[in-house]
Amino acid sequence: MRAILLREFGPVSAIAVEEVSIPRPGAGEVRIDVQATALNFVDLLVIGGTYQFLPKLPFVPGKLPVGVVSAVGAGVDHLKIGERVLALAEHGGYAEQAIVAASACFTLPAALSSVDAAAMALAYDTAWFALCERGRAKPGDTVLVLGAAGAVGFAAVQLAKAYGMRVLAGIHGMARATLVLEAGADAIVDLSVADLRDDLRRQVMSLTNERGVDVVLDPLGGDIFDAAIRAVAWRGRVVVIGFAAGRIPTLKVNYVMLKNIEVSGLQVSDYRKRAPEEMSFCLSEIFRLYDGGKLRPAAAVTVALEEVGDALVSIRERRAKARLVMTPGATHQRH
């Protein structure tokens, strides 16, 4: 089979497709014929060797593949050959076939395509835990989603709206305003303003009758975090998801005390490892809302296995304008 086999950590431009032997599942495992695996910023960290959780070399990168069960190992009785599943695997997705733990596989709704399932994976579960578990958001809350046009932000906009919250979408400029408004955002907060520190707060206060927001979801960090925390309501919650803007911010905790606010962090892979029952509930909610027409991922662009390196570079350089999903043997196309 063909796979991207990482033999040493280094630049993503150096990865290549190799021919490797077809894997066989062991006890408690299944083999899936991979149909789709989303490309994520975290893959750059894994391939570069800077991610906090790294498997032993050599390994196949690519998180959360979607595929069809083609072989089952001993002791597996809840999955059958031919079932289509999302596998919550930390690696193995950039290949034609992958070995995954049967306990980490979730059968997909019939109406959910493999490309859409892969596009939603990692983004929607991250957004769900940030919103519902870390942020404890409830119907009627006002939620500021930063980076709302990105994969996690877009998912958070839809989830918050599905749960009856008011959504302010923070985006850089107005070029993607239509995208997030169609996803359910009630209003736009422009992050491209010159005086971000004061103007973000001014925008939020004008949209909330000078009250501020109950929850901030922040995958960006940097100056945007510094500005957004000034727009939080009394007893509000800020959830730190990542630092896509580049700088890891710091915080004077007296501000946290004076406003009775909470700042928490989210590392979603920990839930897959430490709280599988909570992850199972999260996915059941996502599938339920999808079947109910409440969630619809943005159109994805598919890339072939051989194009993964170049596609990841486009993510690193912020040139990717859509969710990128690897489908083995695919031609470059929009879904």
Q: Count of DSSP E strands?
A: 16
Helix count, DSSP H or I runs of 4 or more residues: 11
CATH superfamily of the largest domain: Medium-chain alcohol dehydrogenases, catalytic domain
Could you give the order of the helices and strands?
EEEHEEEEHHEHEHEHEHEHEHHEHEE
**What is the oligomer described by this structure?**
single chain
Strand content: 15-25%
Proportion in helices: 25-40%
Runs in which pLDDT lies below 50 for 5 or more consecutive residues are none
Backbone shape: globular
**How many domains make up the 3D coordinates?**
2
CATH topology of the largest domain: Quinone Oxidoreductase, Chain A, domain 1
- Class from secondary-structure proportions: alpha/beta
Rg from alpha-carbon coordinates: 20 Å
Mean pLDDT: 94
What does the largest sheet look like? 8 strands, mixed
CATH class of the largest domain: Alpha Beta
In whole angstroms, the N-to-C terminal distance is 26 Å
Instruction: Please name the CATH architecture of the largest domain.
Output: Alpha-Beta Complex
